[in-house]
Specification:
Elements (H helix, E strand, L loop, with lengths): L9 H4 L3 E6 L10 E2 L6 E2 L9 E5 L5 E2 L1 H11 L2 E4 L1
Parallel strand pairs: 1-6
Antiparallel strand pairs: 1-4, 2-3, 4-5
Length: 82
């Protein structure tokens, strides 16, 4: 697949379990994250940003809905709903 969003993420996201959930900051002083593929911004309350998506179980890597749809099959993700 030739897509600008693919930048080697298979090294840490191939076959992982993801959770669909509301964004919460990772720790104090860390007020946002970005989609691992397209760079869309996730925050808790900022208008114009994403407030929900898919995340790894440690809440460290976030994926927006469109990128999840586009890459779910390729990355063979398992999803749990919290």
């Amino acid at each position: 697949m030739n897509d600008w969003r693919l930048q080697g993420q298979e090294k840490y996201l191939k076959g992982v379990t993801l959770q669909k959930k509301t964004y919460k900051q990772f720790r104090d002083g860390w007020d946002h994250d970005h989609c691992e593929f397209c760079g869309a911004k996730f925050t808790e309350n900022t208008p114009g940003t994403l407030h929900e998506g898919y995340t790894t179980q440690n809440n460290y890597h976030w994926i927006c809905d469109p990128c999840f749809t586009d890459f779910n099959e390729l990355f063979e993700w398992k999803v749990i709903f919290v």
